[in-house]
Every structure is written in structure tokens, then in C-alpha cells.
């Protein structure tokens, strides 16, 4: 379905979102600090309400289909972004980043993620426009990613260094300690890099991997580059505050990866089914569409995404509470202790 949104709305939306992101960046730069639970909660609520108002505007200016595509895309990207936070937590722990400067690290990670996703969105939109068979590739990739997500072991803090980070460590002089949020510092009269550079590189390469997963996933929901990009922006906005809000709860959402795996698998099946339904590949059904392959609508996709995340979250919280009680505490008490640390 072609996008039926006014040009002024698209341009105005991108300008406003850019201003909001720049304002958020300036807050982090001018006042690096660990946000309180109240501050983090208010910011997360603000960004969620902003996304819902954006969906409402799309409903009023276009139709329910486009609003539904945005909501489904936003929720998919939001769930994948929360999964991204797990890795960010591991990177922060691996490099012992001071909590005061973790906001800046997260903001840099978000900016890198936006740039990478914009590049992949433009590339993906071009591929879809010119090669209808690309949906087979996207679908197969998501099916593989879903299985890998479900069966892969949890990453260890001691394994946070990827090959690229290890190469940088060998080739550059790195100081043993941080110097605030600086990338360069002076040690015994010599200019050297600080561990902050390694952290930024680790975050950036992680963003690259997650962008490879997320962009095919959302193109399985909508082929509108505008909706794809804005859904990604809204999913990443507030991620910094969500990191501090969830705190120790992140590591207790043990079933979240299965919920995300199911969503990716569902979208993979949807993409392959769409590719079959609109097939133009000569060696498949003689280059004609496969009649029995269903076209899964946007609202079914939205329902599957919401239910999957809800079930995974509730199941994780039930398990976390049961485990906490087995240790003689309530889940709330353990989270309070984690926050104080």
C-alpha cells in the first residue's frame, strides 16, 4: 500500500524528532548524571505518549492501516531495542564504565544506531523497489535469526570484546583508567586513548549487528521508508532512560529473548508468505504467485507482537519473583538493592 501522508507532515515530523533528539543530547552533555527512578520514568512515559500521539496523527491524516503499521513497527523495534540493552549492560560491566558517564555512552550508541539504521533503511527500500525476490532473503534471514536468538547462550561480560575491539586494543595505546568521558588523555606526558574509545567501538559494532536484524524485521511489517525510520526513531528515543529505569530488572527478563525470537520467526514467515503470494521468481510456480500463501494483515501482526511481548514479560516476572522468594526476599527488595548499588 502506498503511503498517503501529506509531505508537510513527513517533513515536520522529521524536524521535530531531530530537535527532540538534539535536546536530549544537550541535556546529557551539559549535565551528566545518573537519573533518578522518577526522572527516568517521566522521560520513558513522555516518549511512549509521543509515539502514541504520532500514531493518532497518522490515523487522522491517513488511515488505520498506516497507524497500525507504525504501531506494529514501533513495538517490534522497541522490543529489539530492549534486547539491545542487555548487551549494553554487559559492555558497561565489562569495561567498568562509571555510572555517571553511562548516559553519554548510551546517547552515542543511540546516535550510531540511528545513522546505521538510516543507511540500512535506504538500502532496504532500494532493494525492495528493484528486486521483489529480496523478501525471500529477508524472510530466510529472520527465520535463521529467530532460531539463533532462541538457542544461543547468554553473552558473558568477559566475552564482550569482539574481534574488531581486540584489534584496536593491539594497535592503540589505551590508558588503564577513564578520564571522565574523554576519548583522549595525557599519561606521563604522552597522549593516549582512554577506555571510553573502546566502549564506543564496542557499542557501535553491537549497533551494527542489531541493525542487521531489525531492518528486515520492520520491512516485514511495512515497506514505507518513512514509517520504518520513524518507528526506529521512536523505539530508540527514551532507550537511555529505560536503561536506568529497568536497572537490575533487565537481567531478570529471562524469557524476553524467546518472545523476541517468536516475533522474528512470525515476521520471517510473513515475509516468505508475502514473497510466495506475489512471486515473480521464474523457478517457483512458473514465475506466478502462489495462491495458497496467505497475506498476513497489519492488525494480526500487531496482535502477535503485543501478545508475544506480554507473555514473555509476565512469565519472566513470575519466575523472577519466585526465585527472589526462594532467596528469602521479594522481587521489589532485590531491585531496590540493585538500584542502590
From TrEMBL:
Lipid bilayer topology: Multi-pass membrane protein
Major location category of this protein: membrane
Pfam families linked to this entry: TerC (PF03741)
Localization per record: Membrane
Keyword DNA-binding: no
InterPro entries registered for this protein in UniProt: Integral_membrane_TerC, Integral_membrane_TerC_rswitch
Transmembrane segments: 6-29, 41-62, 74-93, 105-127, 133-152, 192-212, 218-243, 255-276, 296-318
Domain of life: Bacteria
Keywords from the named record: Membrane, Transmembrane, Transmembrane helix
Family that this chain belongs to: Belongs to the TerC family.
Protein name stated in the entry: TerC family protein
The organism of origin for this protein: Cryobacterium glucosi
Lineage: Bacteria, Bacillati, Actinomycetota, Actinomycetes, Micrococcales
